[in-house]
Write a structure and sequence with these properties.
mainly beta, 2 domains, 0% helix, Virus Head Decoration Protein, Chain: A, 10-stranded mixed sheet
Length: 141
């Protein structure tokens, strides 16, 4: 675990190191989940993969950079991030304050609606629709 401390320009961020056990390269800024399904995968307990239906509750965070198959990479698990892959389907609302979560078979987040609770990702941007990159606060810890 790596913790970037608060300074004059950046807020606190927490990163964890994981190993990509997906069958292909995963793109930076996409959402990943811990692998808890594929028993044949050999890892040291830090394996991550793209979200699938059975691992959505194992949200790990946002991938910091591209990760090839079986490569290690940082996953941002907490803090502000300026670029998070998302898909916003409803164009008639402002999505600031919405909670996002991982979606099966996508490397992006999906709007889960307005919430006054802390969610895995809280969006800061006001207007977006379709496949976008949003600013938000990650709370995967």
């Amino acid at each position: 675990m790596q913790i970037q401390r608060l300074n004059r320009t950046d807020a606190d961020k927490v990163f964890v190191v994981g190993q990509n056990v997906s069958s292909g390269t995963l793109t930076g800024n996409s959402l990943v989940c811990w692998e808890g399904v594929i028993a044949a995968t050999a890892s040291y307990g830090n394996a991550f993969m793209s979200p699938i239906t059975s691992n959505l509750s194992l949200f790990a965070g946002v991938l910091d950079a591209d990760a090839a198959t079986m490569a290690y990479q940082l996953i941002q698990a907490y803090g502000f991030r300026a670029s998070i892959a998302a898909f916003i389907s409803n164009v008639s609302h402002s999505c600031a304050g919405y909670v996002l979560g991982p979606v099966a078979a996508l490397g992006s987040a999906q709007s889960q609606g307005k919430s006054f609770q802390f969610g895995p990702i809280v969006v800061f941007d006001n207007a977006a629709s379709g496949e976008v990159y949003l600013r938000g606060l990650i709370r995967a810890l």
